[in-house]
Amino acid sequence: MALRHFARSEFLDPAAKRGMGGAANWYRPMAWGGLTQPEDLPLLASFGLAGDAAALDGAESTLGLLLGANPLNLSYVSGLGSRQPDGIFHPDSWMHLGPQQVAPGLLAMGPSAYQKEGDPKAGPWDVSFTHLSFYPPAKGWPALELYADARICYPMNEFTVGQIAMVAANFGMLAGSAEGN
Q1: Are residues 75 and 60 in contact, defined by beta-carbon separation less than 8 angstroms?
Q2: Cβ neighbours for 162, distance < 8 A, ≥ 6 positions apart
Q3: pLDDT above 90 for 74
Q4: Whole-number percent of the chain with pLDDT over 70
Q5: How far is CA 166 from CA 38, 43, 134, 163, in A?
Q6: Percent of the chain with pLDDT over 90
Q7: pLDDT tens per residue across span 79-91
Q8: Gap between the Cα atoms of 112 and 128, Å rounded
Q9: What's residue 26's pLDDT?
Q10: Could you give the CA distance from residue 80 to residue 40 in angstroms, rounded to a whole number?
Q11: Taking a C-beta distance cutoff of 8 angstroms, is the pair 144, 71 a contact?
C-alpha cells in the first residue's frame, strides 16, 4: 500500500537514523517547533487505515520526545510533567493567572539549532540573541539542548493552534489504540 510505504520511507526510516528517535521528515529543521510539532499524519493514517503497528510506535516515539524523553528531560507541554517550560509566550496567561504562570496545555516550540553567531543588537526575540546566553557557547551544543525558557524568544516559546491540534490527533490515536479501537 502506498500510504504504508510513504509513512515508513519518509517518517519511520529517518527516525531509525536519528539518535533521538521521533518520527519526522528528515529535512525538517530543528527550529520553530521541529521537535514539538509532530508532522506525522501519514503515520496516524497508516495505523488507522492499514493497522500498521510500526506507524503507531513511531507516533508514540514522537510524542515521547515532546513529553520528556529528550536530553533536557523537559515536557514541552505546560502543566504536564515534573519539568515543563514556564516561559511560553502567552500574554493572556500572564494577565489572568499572574506574570509567572502559563495556562496548561500549551506547547513551547522547543529547541532551536545553532545557525549563526548572535548579534547583541538583534533583540531577545531572535534565536541567535538568546543563544548568546548559553555557556559554553551555543555553537558547540547539541541541537536538542538549545532551548531557553525565554518567553519573548518566539521561535522557542511561541505556540500555534495547528501545533496543538497535531499533538491532540496523536494523543487521540494513541488513546484509541490503547482501548483497542
Answers
A1: no
A2: 37
A3: yes
A4: 92
A5: 6, 12, 31, 5
A6: 7
A7: 888 999 888 888 8
A8: 9
A9: 67
A10: 22
A11: yes
- How far is it, in rounded angstroms, from Cα 84 to Cα 149? 9
Look at residues 35, 75, 40 and name the one whose alpha carbon lies nearest to residue 58. 40
Which one, of 32, 6, 31, 106, lies nearest residue 23 by Cα? 6
Burial 92-121 (b: 16+ CB within 10 A, else e): ebeeeeeeeebeeebbbbbbbbbeeebeee
Amino acid residing at 102: V
Question: What is the pTM for the complete model shown?
Answer: 0.83
Distance of CA 97 to the CA centre of its chain: 25
Cell digits of residue 90: 502567552
Helices assigned H by DSSP within the chain = 2-7, 13-17, 41-50, 53-67, 91-97, 127-131, 154-157, 161-178
- Residue 179 pLDDT: 60
The set of cell numbers assigned to 67 is: 513529553
